[in-house]
Specification:
The chain contains 1 helix and 31 strands. The protein is an all-beta fold and about 325 residues long.
């Protein structure tokens, strides 16, 4: 039988232990364990993270997998409209300053230190309420036109609000410049509980009610076009990324979007609805937290690709 050197023209490096800074495809001989090891790439997976201090659903969220933000929502265990705000540092959740207007069924976007929160229910608490967060304090800004259960994307200074509900489903789209709202190109159909992804000039609206089902539509800053259908209807769920590299998850199902088609990836460990997460995350690193029963405080992190070390065995 030919040996590895004869086949590949090189020898396998011998080390006392496993090397650091490995990349997929590395191969070596561990002289301590007397095993040939290889670094391989596996598909993405969800891992259970640290739970929220206050379980909640239909909250506003922002930030990345290691610097997240969660505010308001229906607080658990006894559902009530909340003003509580929490920050995530990649390891633990810490209480932050409350939002100015307690509400649920609203959305957030941006980063942990430059976030935007828009909309809300009940109506008495301001359907169009808009607040900005600077990493310490929430401050009230100019209201968007009425509408809760909207979709939201973009940044604190270039936000994109999509649809919503004001007694009826809305088709209105509004753009935020850091101080005021102006009308954008209307959606092709009225929708609420939609999931927003991307930027003000390259947005993506995913699923929603009523009638949007498994549809995804793309925004170019003025008009909308049909995108690829999702595997399921993800009304009010987590979404992150950009128009051409997006991820969305609801209940247990999760899928990524490449600008043309959706591909299912690993399921969540704790199925949940009406949760959201690090919507400034990416298809390679995002988080989802909160949601309805059975785990309103659950937090999960998605990483793709995942590199693992395996032992080479004979077959």
């Amino acid at each position: 039988m030919a040996d590895y050197r004869a086949l590949r023209g090189v020898t396998i490096t011998t080390v006392d232990g496993d090397p650091s800074n490995l990349v997929a495809g590395d191969i070596w001989y561990n002289s301590s364990t007397k095993k040939i090891k290889v670094r391989k790439q596996t598909t993405g997976a969800w891992a259970t993270g640290t739970a929220l201090n206050t379980g909640r659903s239909t909250q506003a969220t922002a930030g990345t997998q290691t610097a997240g933000l969660c505010a308001g929502g229906n607080a658990a265990p006894a559902p009530s409209v909340s003003a509580l705000s929490e920050e995530w540092n990649g390891t633990a959740w810490a209480e932050g300053n409350n939002i100015q207007t307690a509400r649920r069924s609203f959305r957030g976007t941006g980063t942990q230190t430059a976030a935007l929160a828009v909309g809300g229910s009940p109506p008495a608490n301001g359907q169009g309420a808009t607040e900005e967060y600077d990493g310490t304090t929430w401050s009230e800004q100019s209201d968007r036109r009425n509408g809760y259960s909207l979709g939201l994307a973009g940044t604190q200074t270039a936000g994109l609000a999509m649809g919503g509900y004001d007694g009826n489903a809305m088709e209105e789209v509004d753009e935020y410049n850091g101080s005021s709202w102006t009308a954008g190109g209307a959606m092709p159909a009225a929708v609420y509980s939609v999931n927003g992804i991307g930027t003000q000039t390259a947005g993506l609206a995913v699923s929603g009610s009523p009638g949007r089902g498994a549809k995804a539509i793309e925004y170019d800053g003025s008009s909308w076009t049909e995108g690829g259908d999702t595997p399921a209807n993800w009304a009010y769920s987590h979404a992150a990324g950009i128009q051409t590299a997006a991820i969305s998850a609801s209940n247990a199902v999760c899928a990524t979007y490449n600008g043309t088609a959706w591909t299912e990836v690993a399921d969540l460990n704790s199925p949940r609805s009406e949760g959201d997460g690090s919507n400034a995350g990416t298809t390679a690193a995002t988080s989802v937290y909160g949601g309805g029963d059975p785990a309103p405080d659950a937090c999960e992190d998605f990483n793709d690709p995942t590199n693992t070390t395996a032992t080479v065995t004979s077959s």
